[in-house]
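Hi R.,

Here's the chain you asked about this morning:
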Amino acid sequence: MVIDFLKTAISLKKIQRQGWIDKLSISNPESVADHTYSMAVIGMIISDLEDYDSEKILKMTLLHDLAESKVGDFVPGEISTDKKIKLENDAFLKIIENLSEPIKSQYQKIWQEYQKGDSKESMIVHQIDKLEMALQAKAYENEGYSKDKLVSFIESAEMGITDPKLKEILRKSLEEK
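And here is the predicted structure, written out as tokens:
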């Protein structure tokens, strides 16, 4: 049923982003839903500026962390990549299982495309994920959190972002106070 899917999406508001807890000891960090919303806004504007398939990018962004509503937010190195992929794939299939076949098929295709990361939309969404993380790190720095503790987030974004427009946004955001 659609209501089960919606309840799952809403539950992302209560899943805290684990990296901020582990690295910064933030007691009330952004939620996965907060992160997803920010990514969607970035995805919307980048799609419009760079002539991507906006609908696909927005759907991919909204779906990309949905499995975390069931499995939680793992930080890199916490579990193996293969185990994380299996857990998230299984959770995602469970989340969409009661949707109508055309919608379920469409969401599964978008999910798989994101997981593979080989289409232009999936590649930009992965980079938007990194950019959003860096923008949030900068926001936490502006709130007074240790710049030293935020370096790994910024470096990860700098290494993961190759798109010129996203690189420019990252560079400019890091220069600001």
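One quick note: The chain has one domain: 2-175.

Cheers,
M.
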